[in-house]
Specification:
69 residues, binds zinc ion, two-stranded antiparallel sheet, mainly alpha
Length: 69
């Protein structure tokens, strides 16, 4: 019986391990899988939204028109 062996590098920690030995491939262990998942979630929340700044400028212009009356 020959055991398959494929050395791969973990994308999270860079540690080399046997691909067929890990339950969490392509990561070497559960911790590395969770770290990678956390990076994905943080990336989603990091998208900036510039719309509220535009609305604040519009409110400023409205005040100007009122003072002309
Ligand atoms: Zn790892």
């Amino acid at each position: 019986m020959t055991k398959k062996e494929l050395l791969v590098k973990c994308p999270t920690c860079g540690h080399k391990f046997n691909y067929h030995d890990s339950e969490f491939r392509p990561f070497c262990r559960e911790k590395c899988q969770l770290i990678d998942l956390g990076r994905w979630l943080e990336g989603d929340y990091a998208i900036p939204c510039s719309d509220p700044i535009d609305e604040a400028e519009k409110t400023d212009n409205d005040n100007d028109e009122e003072s002309e009356n």
